[in-house]
Each structure stands twice: as structure tokens, then as C-alpha cells.
Amino acid sequence: MIEKVIHINDTKKLVGLLPAVRYTQPKYLYIAMGNARCPDAELYIKEGDHVNSCQLIGMRHAAFFDQPIHATCSGTFVGLEKHYHRSGKLTDFIKIENDFQDTLDTTNLKMRTQEEIDALTKDDMVQILKDCASVGLGGSSFPTYVKFQTDKPINMILVNGIECEPYITADHRLMLEYPYRVMDAIKYTMKAFNCKHAKICIKSKYTDIKRVYKQVLKEYEGSGIELCSVGNYYPQGWEVEMIKNATGIRLKPGELPSNRGIINFNASTMVGIYKAVKYNMPVIKRFITVTGDGINYPKNFRVRVGTSIKDLIPMCGGYKDPEKEKVFILGGPMMGASVPSDDCIITKTVTSVIVLNKTEYKEEPCIRCGSCVLSCPVHLEPVQIMNAVKTLDKPRIKMLNPLKCIECGLCSYTCTSKIPLTDYIRKAKIIAKL
Amino acid sequence: MNIVKETSPHLRRSATVTRMMVDVLIALAPTLIFSFIVYPLQTLITYLLSVVIMVSSEFVFVGLKNMMPKDGLKHSFKERFAYAYKGKYNQNNILPPAISAIIFTLIMPAGAPIYAVIVGAFVGIVIGKLVFGGLGSNIFNPAALGMIVAKVCFGSQFNSDVSTWYYSIPDAAAGATPLGLINGGAFANYGAYSIGDMFFGRIPGTLGEVYKVTILLGMIYLLMRKSADFRIVFSYLGTFIFLTLLGGLAVYGLNKDVNPFMFALYNLLSGGVLFGATFMLTDPVTAPINSPSRILYGMIAAVITVFIRFFAALPEGVGFSILIANMIGVALDHYEWSNPRYTWKNILAMALVVVVSGSITYLVIRFGGVYNG
């Protein structure tokens, strides 16, 4: 109907409050050679070599930065195998046969005492995060150390625990199960930036997280960390919307939050920072949600990075209605990428695996109801962009400014005629860039 | 098990175009039923004729649009028929013409001859919609266009003696519609029909526009279901009430017997203002797509309605104003100035429309010599 749609049918109750199942010792683990940001990689080990958990086994190269590759379990390097990466491409994966000993690599890891951590400067933090290959674990895989390199004065740290996409509950579990790690990481980050305020942003309907953090915050009295309830809508987790609701500051399109003295991290990135600072340890485990209407018993998991999704599906009772066509999504159902096979690997930035029964939507002519225009969080006019793309009118496309689009998918979601507007805007972006 | 790839987003909401059209049908139903009770024969004939003409025109149009290209081979009629219609003829080719037919029936004056109905329905659907490319492409509201064509071509041949069991025309009115009475600046005649009679439709006029109770029910339903944009409805009605109130004040300055508020209410309840605001202006296809443009669109339609009623030779201006506003709506959507946000520019445009039209209404009635008793 003709309305601003910001609430997406809440499918999080599929998993509900189930605790995360620990599945940390699979037979084989697979670690991606390249990824979307760093396509090339070199290996430091040979076939048959024994590796320790957290050992540096290679280096990914990109134009501006390198990213170390760490083994996530101890075992033997078997060889390279092709599997589907989160980006939907077939990629080489380093296959490690688990020896179930979980011997830690002693050269890299070291436990830092509280005094050592207190003595760390921002430049030390940058180096630590660079060595530990810490990236944005909410799905962006943006290198965390780049955020730490800013020269601007920072006076507010925002922790994004909103997880506004439907279906996913991985961050929710993480916030509930590791509140102390999140809090400590915020303390380290505040120290590094020398800033006085931090806010943990959560959806206002998450009363369980609120109760946990209210209790935990008592132990961190005077640290300047607060809990901040923001809206329950989509896309609340987008940084511009989150900053607007948490601090009242409206960022201009394309403006970096650090310009306004704000820096924001995902909650799971915070846990990554905690591990890196405290133990010099890369991210080797993460929370993941396996859900969707194509799965019998949706569940949360805590798995090692590199686990094959094929191992997880039987633990969820297998596929529901196997005769139906399925869509396999890594990431959220609104922005996540669909992969053509279930033979894919959980990398650091995969937050969820969603298996949906394929629904065919019949595209009908646009009746110009305007729901897409009303719903667009960046105030674009998707229907006008679609018409401009259909006529390949380049000046018109440029004028309509499709590059502002964040691809949240609300226009397609809300369309009463079931037109894939987001696809048209992707095309418009390509045309506008020409 | 088969895994397929698709682009994000992978979810869609449940609202569909069909559901929106069914909502409009539901909202129209009480008015249609009431019209059928008051004028059984006329409503039945007009409705059946217009539905048959509009739906069959759309059927022929689908066949022509999807005609099999000439490839030098001979194809049987069955093959060509299947090529043109299979998967291409669906509820979207039946429901919208049916809705147009209902609206057309309800806005036709009681006493319109059959040939006027036939010509109006045909012109409305073909020139008003199909020549532009069918659903979603039309500029004009097909029903309004059909009604205007029928009225302009055959207006003098309409039967004015249309009293039924439901009402009898008071002597003071002598068969004239409420707006016919005050046409030509005779604003003081506005008291011939009581407000209660006008509210319950006990007046001569069109088949369906006169029953305000059922129209208001339909309006409430559509607004609750959000199948009509409230911005258009409220900006149209608000501007209309504002301007008629100003007109009433101007008339009050000339004739102290006129109560400006009753004058505005009389104008609101006469003619097709409520019906047009609920069912015709809110047709999303012919309205602009941005919310500020929609507000401006409703305001412009109201200004044109009031100007036609007060200053033009025609007693009623809703049909014309809707067609003119449809054209302006297209212009408002032009990409160089369309903006979904409320900027100072479009707020200034709205303020200008209110100020300019308000001062014209007041000054022309008060000092322009329009009022003639």
C-alpha cells in the first residue's frame, strides 16, 4: 500500500533466544586465499606442513594494504580447494586438516597485562590490529586499523549492536554472551583515542540486552560508557541513521563520521579488538545464525572461521521441503549476496546463512504508488531512476543521483508491483559512473 | 535440491497491486449499491454498458499490443490468439477497467442518454488510457475524461427530470442541481437545498456523487488501508474548504444573509468534491510520486475546482480540475525539480498557491462584480 515501509516482518523469532551451539572442531577448515578487498595472496607454507592455531600462514595483497592470513586451528595443510566465497565467486581456499590438539602458535600470541595495555598508544593499536587482520565483522570487512589511523579528534565511540536486518541474531547472542569483552574493548578503544564518551547502540525492543548491560555497566562506573536505545526499524544499523538517532548529528552524504568526532564499530568487531589487544589473537571464532524458512531447526552457532556450511546444515535438521528450489544467502536477506551452491565457507565477515524457499514474484506494471520514494532512506526516487534506466537517458540518470544509494533494498521490498528496483538502481550506478 | 541465485533483496512485502485495486472496489461498493437502489434501471444500464465497453476495449488492446510479428509463415488464429494472450492477459487487464467503469457510472449525471454513456465510456478508456499504453502509463483519469466528453458533447440532451422515490425537488430549485443554482454568481441562492438533504443525497445530480455517507465510508476505508494517499485527499479538501470559506466571506461582505461557513459546507457537499477527492484524484497512476508534489497537486486541483465553480460558465469543475491537475502532475514529476523531501522551494510553491488563489477568490468576488444576487 502507499506508505513508508520501515518495519520488515520480524523473522528473528525463528531463532529466538536459543543459545549458540559450539561447533569448534570440524574435521577440515578452509581459509580463503583472496577476498573482495584483497584479491591476490601468497602462502608461507607448503603442502604437508603442520600449522598451529593463529599461525601466520600467508599474506593477502591489495593496492593499498596487506592483510595477513592466519590459521584458525592446528593441523596439517592439505592443499588448495575451490569453494564458494561470501562474494558469490569460486575462490581458492587453504584446506587444513584439524588435528584436534588446538596447539596455539607461541611466536605470535602473547598475553598482555593490564599495565601493558594501559601503556599502548594509538599507533601501537594500529600495528596490533594490522597484524591481527582485524576487519569490520558486521559484513563490510573494512580494515579496522584504517579507522584507527584517523588524525581527527574523536569524542564519541559508537558500538553498533543494532543488527537491523531481519533473520539475523548472531550479534544479539554475542552481546548477551560476551558483555565483558565488548566493554573491555570499548575501554581500550576509548583509551587509544583519548575520548570520554562511548555509547552501545541497541534496538529499543531488546530488553534482554538492556538488562544484561545495565548490570554490567555498574562495574564500569565512571568510564563514560552508556547504553543507547535507538529505533527498531530498518535500516537503523546504517551508520548515518545510527549516528542520527544516537547523537542527533546528521551526516552529509559521503561524509566520514570521524569528521564530526565520531567513530563507530560493530559489536563483533569490538570483540575482535578485545582479542587482538589482550592476546594478540586474530579472529578465529565467530557467531553465526543459520536460519530461514528452508531450514528445519534454525540455530545460532559459534564456529571457527573456515567451517564449511555443509557441516552446519545437518546440525539444523537439514533442509525443509527439499523438493522446493532454495535461495542460499550469506549475510542478511536485504543486502546479503546469494551463492549458487551450499558448498561455501564461513569467512570472518559472514554473519548468517539464510536458506529461503524460492518465491517467484510476478512483475506487474508500475502504478506509481510512490511507496519506494516514501521508503527510501537516502531520499532518492527509485521509480524515476527505473524509468531513466529503461530509456538509457544518461543526463537524467546523473541528475537523479543514484550513486547516493546504499542498496538497502527497501525499494524492491516495498514495491507493490514487485519490480526489482534495486537492480535498476545498480544499473543506473554503472551508467552514472561511465 | 536445487539452489538458485537471485539478487538482493530476497524478501518482498505482501502488498500487491491487485490488493490495492480490490480495496478501491470495496470502497466503491457502498456508493454503487446505493446508486443502484435509488436509480435501479439507469445505474444498471450505465454500469453494464461501461463495463462491457471498457473491459472489452482493454481485451482488444492486449491483443493488438502483443500481436505476433509477421515472419512469413502461416499461423492459425488459435496460435496467434495464444501468442497474444497467454500470460499477458491477467487481473491487471480486468480490474482497472472495471474500476474505471464503476467510477464513470457514478459520475454520470442521472438522466444521461445511452449514446452519451457509450461514447463517454469508449473515449474514456481508449483515449484516456489505452493510447498511452495501458495500466500505469496513462496521464488522464479515464473515467473523468469519458464523463467530460459525454457532458461536453451531449450535455444539452440530458434529461433533467430525474426525481425518484428517494427525493423530490423543492419548488425553489425547479430541477436545478445545487451548483446550477448558484452558477453565474447567484451565490445567495445557496439555501434552496438543506445541508441534510445534500449529505444524504436527496438532490438531483449524478448517479453516485451525491451520497456523501457512502463516499465518506469509502474514503475512511481507503485511508485506513492506505490504498489512497492521504496527502492528496487532505490537501485537496483543505484547500477547497479554505477557498470556499474565503468566497463565503466575500459574499458575506456583499450580502449579510449569507453565512460563510454554511456556504463553504454547501460547496463541499455539492457536486463531486468528496467523490473526486476520494476516488479520482488519489488514483496513483495519474498523481505525482513525491509527497510534496502530491500535496501541491491536490492544492492545484482544488484551486481549479473553485475557480471553475465561481468564475466560469460551468456549474461544476471537479472533472475538469482533475484532468488539468493530471497534466500538472506530470510536470511536477519532471526530474529536474522533483524532490521527495520538503525543501523551502516546494513549501514556497505551496504557500504561493494558497496566497495567490485566496486573494484572487476574495478580491474577484468582493470587488470584481461576479456577485449578482
Task: Please describe the topology of this protein.
The complex is a heterodimer of chains A (434) and B (373).
Chain A (H helix, E strand, L loop, with lengths): L20 E3 L4 E5 L7 E4 L6 E2 L4 E6 L4 E5 L4 E10 L5 E9 L15 H6 L2 H10 L12 H5 L7 E5 L9 H8 L1 H15 L3 E7 L3 H13 L5 E6 L8 H9 L14 E5 H13 L5 E7 L7 E6 L4 H7 L10 E5 L6 E3 L12 E6 L13 H5 L6 H10 L2 H6 L10 H5 L6 H13 L1
Parallel strand pairs in A: 1-14, 9-10, 9-12, 10-11, 13-17
Antiparallel strand pairs in A: 2-8, 3-5, 4-7, 5-6, 7-8, 13-14, 15-16, 15-17
Chain B lengths: L2 E2 L12 H22 L1 H26 L11 H9 L9 H13 L6 H15 L13 H13 L23 H5 L12 H6 L11 H14 L4 H25 L5 H10 L3 H8 L10 H21 L6 H15 L11 H24 L6
Give short descriptive properties of this protein:
A: 434 residues, alpha/beta, four-stranded antiparallel β-sheet, 14 helices, B: 373 residues, mainly alpha
Can you tell me about this structure?
The complex is a heterodimer of chains A (434) and B (373). With 434 residues, chain A is of the alpha/beta class. Helices cover 29% and strands 22% of the residues of chain A. Chain A contains 14 helices and 17 strands. Chain A has helices at residues 114-119, 122-131, 144-148, 170-177, 179-193, 207-219, 239-247, 267-279, 309-315, 371-375, 382-391, 394-399, 410-414, 421-433; strands at residues 21-23, 28-32, 40-43, 50-51, 56-61, 66-70, 75-84, 90-98, 156-160, 197-203, 225-230, 262-266, 285-291, 299-304, 326-330, 337-339, 352-357. In chain A, the strands form four sheets. Chain A has a six-stranded mixed beta sheet, with helices on both faces. Chain A has a four-stranded antiparallel beta sheet with strand order 2-8-7-4, with no helix packed on it. In chain A, strands 11-10-9-12 form a four-stranded parallel beta sheet. In chain A, helix 6 (207-219) links the parallel strand 10 and strand 11. Chain A is globular. In chain A, 49% of the residues are buried. The mean pLDDT of chain A is 89. Chain B has helices at residues 17-38, 40-65, 77-85, 95-107, 114-128, 142-154, 178-182, 195-200, 212-225, 230-254, 260-269, 273-280, 291-311, 318-332, 344-367; one strand at residues 3-4. The N and C termini of chain B lie far apart (82 Å). The model of chain B has no long low-confidence stretch (mean pLDDT 89). At the A-B interface, strand 15, strand 16, helix 10, helix 11 and helix 13 of A face strand 1 and helix 1 of B.
